[in-house]
Amino acid sequence: MKLQQVLSRVRKAVDDYGMIEEGDRIALGISGGKDSLTLLYALAHLRIFYPNHFEIHAITVDLGFGNFHLNKIQELCEKLNVPYTIVSTEIADIVFEKRKETNPCSLCAKMRKGALNEKIKELGCNKVAYGHHKADMVETLMMSMIFESRIHCFSPVTYLDRMDLTVIRPLMYMNEEDIIGFQNKMELPVAKSPCPMDGNTKREYAKQLIRKLDQDHPGARDHMFQAIVNADLKGWPPKNPPRKREKKKEK
Ligand SMILES: Nc1ncnc2c1ncn2[C@@H]1O[C@H](COP(=O)(O)OP(=O)(O)OP(=O)(O)O)[C@@H](O)[C@H]1O
């Protein structure tokens, strides 16, 4: 997929849900995977022409597994003129060695978000963008039904009251295959997570299930995604809010 096509999908999501307002300082959560690197590329370019002016700052939380090389991502950020911060942590050691968690993913995710949010606030950002795409959302719906007896999916825009921080998901209209195509075309410098749990989670189970459904009934994933968008789920904002372009008042 070409950059122009990525930008058009991202812009539609941003416009549909009013994700970016004038003067926003947006942190980009960069795991090192294909999704967040596509997000970095897209927002670095959207920044140039989007009517609402905004700044971006890329952040990676290094979980401390070792063997995680971020120098190529650092170079990409320099090329795109995006400031980049790496937060070093000992999360891997705490979760696997000290606590010996039997279910490590939830504690790890909680600690990772804590470290990320702390740095975001320190840098003075008011929003954070994640690299979640269409398949992530359908998987989340599937997991919520199978494991939690509820119909739930995270919202395109979520205001975190306690943190005074807004989460946005500009890749929500992107298909995973298109992100893979973009990654290959642009030769994005993916840094593979050395986590031993990678690819061995409930999410992976849901992913395989949806893949099978989509093979047996082509379009099933898209239909499920549309069902999410049309469902008026709890916490979801209405689509197409009026554009806010006026400058924020000085405090
Ligand atoms: N270590 C991290 N540091 C900063 N942000 C992160 C980190 N891990 C995840 N994120 C953010 O949270 C989002 C969702 O996390 P998740 O682990 O589901 O990523 P993913 O599906 O593997 O995506 P990616 O391909 O970008 O790694 C990522 O797209 C990214 O924006």
UniProtKB/TrEMBL annotation:
Query: Per UniProt, what is one GO molecular function of this protein?
Result: transferase activity
The question of whether Transport is a record keyword is answered with no
Give the binding site residues for ATP: G29, I30, S31, D35, V61, G131, D136
- Does this entry carry the keyword Transferase? yes
The alphabetical list of record keywords is: ATP-binding, Nucleotide-binding, Transferase
InterPro entries (alphabetical): Rossmann-like_a/b/a_fold, TilS/TtcA_N, tRNA_thiolation_TtcA_Ctu1
Q: Which PANTHER family match?
A: AMINOTRAN_5 DOMAIN-CONTAINING PROTEIN, SULFURTRANSFERASE-RELATED
* Protein name as catalogued: tRNA 2-thiocytidine(32) synthetase TtcA
Organism name: Anaerostipes butyraticus
Its taxonomic placement starts with: Bacteria, Bacillati, Bacillota, Clostridia, Lachnospirales
